[in-house]
Specification:
Catalyzes the NADPH-dependent rearrangement and reduction of 1-deoxy-D-xylulose-5-phosphate (DXP) to 2-C-methyl-D-erythritol 4-phosphate (MEP). The chain has 15 helices and eleven strands. The chain is α/β, with parallel strands linked by helices and 381 residues long. Strands 4-3-2-1-5-6-7 form a seven-stranded parallel sheet, with helices on both faces.
Length: 381
């Protein structure tokens, strides 16, 4: 029996990798929904392979274009309706940023398993998402390569044996830069990631280590551990995706080539282990190196630990401030190093939040963005 699957963010990096995986398993999955933000032509191209899939586009401004006919659902609300009506048994959420939150929660409300690449869902509303998954008897399966790795390692060894989680980071393009060099970083520099091919915002987050900061918060929530039990090591080769240390001292690592099709494949078939042709790694002749991240030069990482420690609405505020600051950097309003300054200023405020109440989460998000925009204005060039 084929499992019905919805792919959200089908034209982005995660979505395209998901469709690549699905193409290898036509007898296992039926694609019932494809969504995109604004890339209508790429969505229509993807739909040629899956002509029975419903299509949803977030950018309602394109509804009047000549090619809009095949689109069944428009705008953010239309996407939520599409998820509810799709009958999907598994939803892959590859939407970038906070716009992925409500689609994740809606998918869980339908009882679909959630293959989650949208880390903001857990950062902003982890407790709420877990409660919905429990209520509707469905599963949240991480697709981020780091959390997928930890997920698999804990499946093998059990959470009771865990001492600490070690997330790896490529270090981005600036890991050997000085403070003076970081002050001069351009948008073009920041978009040149040495290992992964990703969207613009997440590439900049990787350069600033904000992406790793979000992943620290996500790991704390996904695996129910205190922040001091989540470590980060810079590993430029990106072959080791994460490690766990057990209480008896042993380290266990999950390794593959840096290919998002591997964690996507694992999420789609979990708990079954199926043959995977992607990301196979031959260690012969390879060198693996690890180093501590420079938290003085990359403050987004220690700021994430601060947000994780404080809890409540602080992770929401961290994410909102980062999204606003990155957008301002991409628009030329602030410098690369101002991203960390803006987020630090936002986290100086108080951010109470009822973590199981969606409106409380959204209120914090709104207020944090207002605060961030004020800080951006002060730092504008």
């Amino acid at each position: 029996m084929k499992r019905k699957i919805a792919v959200l963010g089908a034209t982005g990096s995660i979505g395209k990798s998901t469709l690549d995986v699905l193409a290898s398993y036509p007898d296992d999955f039926e694609v019932v929904l494809l969504s995109a933000n604004r890339d209508l032509q790429k969505l229509l191209l993807a739909s040629r392979v899956y002509p029975s899939a419903k299509l949803a586009l977030a950018d309602i401004g394109l509804a009047s274009t000549a090619d809009a006919g095949p689109i069944s659902f428009w705008g953010p609300e239309g996407l939520l309706q599409a998820i509810r009506e799709s009958g999907a048994q598994i939803v892959v959420n590859g939407i970038a940023g906070s716009p992925g939150l409500l689609p994740s929660l809606t998918a869980l409300e339908t009882g679909a398993d959630l293959a989650l690449a949208n880390k903001e869902t857990i950062v902003m509303a982890g407790p709420l998402a877990f409660a919905l998954a429990k209520e509707h008897h469905c599963r949240i399966i991480p697709v981020d390569s780091e959390h997928s790795a930890v997920f698999q390692l804990l499946e093998a060894h059990g959470p009771d044996a865990l001492e600490e989680i070690i997330l790896t980071a490529s270090g981005g393009p600036f890991r050997q830069y000085t403070k003076e060099q970081l002050e001069q970083v351009t948008l073009t520099d920041a978009l040149a990631h040495p290992t992964w091919n990703m969207g613009g915002k997440i590439t900049i987050d990787s350069a600033s280590l904000a992406n790793k900061g979000l992943e620290v918060i996500e790991a704390v929530r996904l695996f129910a551990v205190n922040p001091d039990r989540v470590k980060v090591l810079v590993h430029p080769q990106s072959y080791v995706h994460s490690m766990i240390r057990l209480k008896e001292g042993s380290l266990y690592a999950q390794m593959s080539r840096p290919d998002m099709r591997v964690p996507i494949h694992n999420a789609l078939f979990w708990p079954e282990i199926r043959h995977c042709k992607f990301g196979r790694l031959d260690l012969a002749g390879q060198a693996l190196t690890f180093e501590q991240p420079n938290e003085d030069l990359f403050p987004m990482l220690p700021l994430a630990y601060k947000a994780a420690d404080l809890g409540m609405g602080y992770p929401v505020a961290y994410n909102a401030a980062d999204e606003e600051a990155v957008a301002a950097f991409m628009n030329g309003q602030i410098s690369f190093t101002d991203i960390g300054r803006v987020v630090a200023e936002v986290l100086q405020s108080q951010w109470p939040c009822e973590e199981l109440v969606l409106q409380s989460i959204l209120d914090v998000d709104t207020r944090a963005r207002i605060t961030a925009k004020k800080a951006i204005k002060e730092h504008s060039r």
